[in-house]
Amino acid sequence: MRKQEVRTGGETGQGHSASSPAEQVKALVDLLAGKGGQGSLAPQTPDRALDSPLGPHSNDWRIQKHREALLSRVRGSPELGSPSPRLSSLLLVEGLTDLQLKEHDFTQVEATRGGWRSTKTIALDRLFLPLSRVSIPPRISITIGVAGVGKTTLVRDFVCLWARGQVGKDFSLVLPLSFRDLNPHEKLSADRLVRSVFPHIGELGLAGATRVLLILDGLDECKTPLDFSNTVACTDPKKEIQVDHLITNIIRGNLFPEVSVWVTSRPSAAGQIPGGLVDRMTEIRGFNDEEIQVCLEQLFPEDQVLLGWVLSQVQADRALYLMCTIPAFCRLTGLALGHLCRNKPEPQDTELWPPRTLCELYSWYFRMALGGEGQEKGKASPRIEQLAHGGRKMVGTLGRLAFHGLVKKKYVFYEPDLKAFGVDLALLQSALCSCFLQREESLASSAAYCFTHLSLQEFVAATYYYSASKKAIFDLFTEGGVSWPRLGFLTHFRGAAQRAMQAEDGRLDVFLRFLSGLLSPRVNALLAGSLLAQGEHQGYRAQVAELLQGCLRHDTAVCARAINVLHCLHELQHTELARGVEEALESGGLARLTGPHHRTALAYLLQVSDTCAQEVNLSLHLSQGVLQSLLPQLLYCRSLRLDTNQFQDPVMELLGSVLSGKDCRIQRISLAENQISNKGAKALARSLLVNRSLTTLDLRSNSIGPQGAKALADALKINRTLASLSLQSNTIRDDGARSIAEALGTNRTLSVLHLQKNTIGPVGTQRMADALKQNKSLKELMFSSNSMGDGGAKALAEALKVNQGLENLDLQSNSISDAGVAALMGALCTNQTLLSLNLRENSISPEGAQDLAHALCTNSTLKNLDLTANLLHDEGAQAIAVAVRENRALTSLHLQWNFIQAGAAKALGQALQLNRSLTSLDLQENAIGDEGASAVASALKANTALTALYLQVASIGAPGAQALGEALAVNRTLEILDLRGNTIGVAGAKALANALKVNSSLRRLNLQENSLGMDGAICVATALSGNHGLQHIKMS
User: Fold this and answer.
1) Could you read off the pLDDT of 111-129 as tens digits, one per residue?
2) Domain 61-283 falls in which CATH fold?
3) Beta carbons of 435 and 452 less than 8 angstroms apart
4) Cβ atoms 861, 833 nearer than 8 A
5) Which stretches make up the NACHT domain (predicted)?
6) Where does the chain hold its CATH 3.40.50 domain(s)?
7) What is the pTM of this model?
């Protein structure tokens, strides 16, 4: 405890002064009690800073000087120190995913559709504090984020806030270093590392009571990869060792063991640090919709018209909009589109905008840079062809620098690097260079330079490779090495494509996209005269398209590299393959597309197609082989439909592996109407034990029995994300229902459960009822078409007396008679949560209707009651009508096919004159006749609540229709009237037609099968010419 600074020196002495073990224990207990809320074995570090707003040792002049020095470095950036909400709250993540470790940043954003994988967040001011009272502060923390997301900005914000005493008050010292500072050094000691950068710290030291935070920003920019397996341990802080060895020893704790270390990195580079050494990992999320708009507003604060146009272009292109979740890319996009709009294209360029591809967008940015965006207002932009030769030469040297940096994974450059590649240092501050390179002042060495975004380095590198490959005779990737002669652009392009396909980390993916895009006719037109020769693409484009498509043959696996080939074809504007597969996807014709190139195109569409944005529908005859090839891409689908594919249990093993992946983003999956048995259900259940994304699982119409249901139920006892499960039309029987009931006893997240058509009898129903007495989270239970009978109904009734969570209960076709209904209605008298009750197709007689009526007079929450296809007759319906007069909650009442006649219709009509809550009444397939229709029509003249009235096949003739017509002439609320299957004839049609001339509320009218004749149809059609409310009418 003393080491963790929970105990002071005096408290330590107090413990030692106790003579016996019992007294020592008592002293420790008293000590913890005296600490009050902070008496925890975990150090509550914030409280050590309460003595001063700037934290411990704040009065030491060297620390004060250090704070001032840090503030002076960021004084030129007024926005620092006020982090945005995005940087003020980081995502807490559990390690790196395969996607992050192996793929390009752009691929990560495209695959995940710009979303983030964690909902857990941590505030910036708690970044280095314990997560709970029984944990300790992290020693090694890593914050990851794709290039351009704001990692360095975050570090600068934190340092600025710390220097002002606003965060990290428990740290006496914060020492921010970047790998850009360390790269120029070959060897360093731990002491010299700190003192060479922060000489003003003096002898304060980095151990003892002083708590220090060492920040290492930009691990991905380290010139030498960290190798933890082959680094020799070093514990001497004065010994000079290689810089990468120094960093590994600091992270391992061999050096500065008491110092907290914060590393920022792109995800792929963060994988160099073994997970066992990392105490906390956080991630910076990208922009959300609102932040994208705010970013663009900051670019055009005084031109709302320009802002609106730029924003509309970004929102219209889904792929572009996803990439704009990266802040640096969003700004680059805004600048390029703003330049495009300000400088209206010349007549020959009008077909070149807006940009359709990534390469086109960057070409516009290039034109902005080459054309001098910063010139005086009102002055015409110079033509690209008029650019000085020196400008083109500068672009060429920058391209060579960018390309060789990309090949060697080098993203930070120093003056010797620039000189080696012929970059004129005197021109670095020119408008042209400033659009591509940004200068960073190093703390301990000469200035460092990097491209304003990684993608710009890749684009400039592609322009260099494009130009150089037309005259190079050796492999450009092995400059300075030995290679076979390579002649001609196509040969070099093939070499670049092969290297990109073989690169396991995807670092050449976007480079190859840009290289392909430079052969697009639109890009050629944009850059002709500056970087490209007019029309030269025509000699290469078709052959390059064939070469790229050739990369997808010979059983190529559907992987990120293969999908990138489709991106290249898109940049080339050769979209026939993708368009053909998309048409098959929309029409349900995927079964005939079985080639490797088709599968790859489908995987590509899963990422970029608007069709797949909300839901991926792969239903109907998808083969196991195609599905297996798509598994890596299915991870990132939000909603996935795989219905009616004849999938059997082996496919469930595959899907289970997907759902078990920590990358998995699937929220909804439907596997209805396949051939899944118990074995397949068990495979899915195993995945639910670890899955944290799935909220809806639809397994209806399969062959899952009691054992499969038990496996799923066991998973529900642990799973805390699944909210909806459908096992409709399986065979789980009583045993399966018993297992699920046990799960409901502990599960608190499942809210929707479908168990229709599962041969569940009274025993299984009893178990479910017992579970409902405890469960408060289930909102919807669909239990129709089972065999529960009156015994099961009575058991559920007892549960409803206790349960206060269930809102929707479906008991259709369950052999429930009056005894069961009496029990249910008894429960309904006290239940205050049930909103919908379905009792269709049971055996409820007039006697049971009396119990229903009594419950409706008492209950004040039930809104929907379905009594279709029972045995109510007039007597039962009249009893319900009396209840409707008093009830103020019911909004929907279904009485279809209940042998109701005119007497009950009259009673219902009288009830409607008083009722103000019922909005939908269904009396279809009851012989209410003209007399009953007239009674209901009379009620409509006074009723102002009913919006839907269903009177199909109700023995209504012309007199009834005439009465309804008179009501419609007065009524202003009815929107739906269905009179299909009656005999209203021409006279009835004319009456309704006259009403339509004045009625403005009716939206849907069905007059099918009513012997209207030509005259009746003409009358109605003529009336419609003056009616502006009716939207749908059926008369044929």
Assistant:
1) 887 777 677 899 999 999 9
2) Rossmann fold (3.40.50)
3) yes
4) yes
5) 139-269
6) 61-283
7) 0.83
